[in-house]
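Dear all,

This email documents one entry for the complex benchmark we are building for the journal club exercise. For each entry we list the sequence lines for every component of the assembly. Then comes the predicted three-dimensional structure of the complex as a token string, followed by one or two observations. Please use this as the template for your own entries, and keep the labels exactly as they appear.
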Amino acid sequence: MTRISINDIQAGMVLDEEIKNSTGAVLALAGVEIAEKHIKAMKMWGIPDVCIRTDTAYLDNKNIQNIDLEKIKLSTTIIAKRFTHTDLKHPVMRTLFKIATLHHATNS
Amino acid sequence: MQQTAEPFKKRTPELIIRGITKVSSLPTIFVKLDEAMANPRSTNKDYAVIINEDTAMAVRLLRIANSALYNFPAKIETVSHAITIIGSKQLRDLLLACSVIKMFDDMPEELVSMELFWRHSIAVGVTARILAGMRRENNVERFFVAGLLHDIGRLILFTEATKQMQHIVKEAAERQQLLFKIEKELMGFDHAKLGGLLLKTWKLPSRLIDAVQYHHTPMNSKTHPIEASIIHCADIIVNALQLGTTGEHLVPPLNDKAWELLNLKKDTLATAVEHLLVQYNDAVQFILSDSGNG
């Protein structure tokens, strides 16, 4: 589970939690693959960030198209262990996580 | 040698440094160059003469000058040329870096591979240099040296307190804890403190001492928090990418204030890493390989 700012969300990521608006209506269910319409709705309702399934959280990386998704998932798990003592809520550490995952997947 | 049956005799960092004889002082060539540079009457020609006395060192410096670390359009053929283009202070700092690596040439590799140790150290040096460049710091070579030397204290621990470190490494692995935290827990100090002390013994400038001593606690440096913060962040980046290792397999936590102090946008991180990967390969090739063979 990785928390990502609404500004960093990309279509294709998979939600790890249910998203509700301020009146309690469900905007998207957990497990749903995010589409542009979801992003629009979340922005409209002022939702600041959402939980994304970690192994889909890095699809916005432009180089990822060339790498096997399974490899990325494996690398994500390995890198997550290395980052145990870091604060992934910090945007710099999140960025570094992405970079490290991509680097690991490309070089392993 | 310590007995493993009983708790380790606690030695202070000062005691450990005093016990070192082999690396107790920096190589003559560096001392000579440093002294010459402190003399206002010295010229670039004098510096070139000193450096050229050590042919192997001169060749190595030229290879670095012609590498991706500098990306100069034309080839630098002589030390004099290198001094003119790169700068004498910068060349001196590069020479310091190469000299230190050479000092540890024949250390036993019981707990860590020297190759991996220097790879990590060079990577942090290159990253620190890049981050400093992004901040438009002058003489970025001093950050390269700081990065290169940041874990030297751990090298000393591996060679001077081998059994203790064996225990510490094992403990860190079992508890999945950061190595420097276990060092502090079991010895009362960590490799950063020891490294700073070694640099003090070598009479290196305080900005280098602080960069090394405080690279895990950058905000504790009263006089050089920026230097310490750059090394701090560079170390974290390199650990995340696992380019070599000095024994640590986890990524240390980022000190928020240190990152703020650097005043860099997180988007620059990806660019920094791109540069790092290119320069790292060159740096490893030219700094770690056997000298002399052109």
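Observations: The two ends of chain A are 24 Å apart (CA to CA). The first helix of chain A runs from residue 36 to 44.
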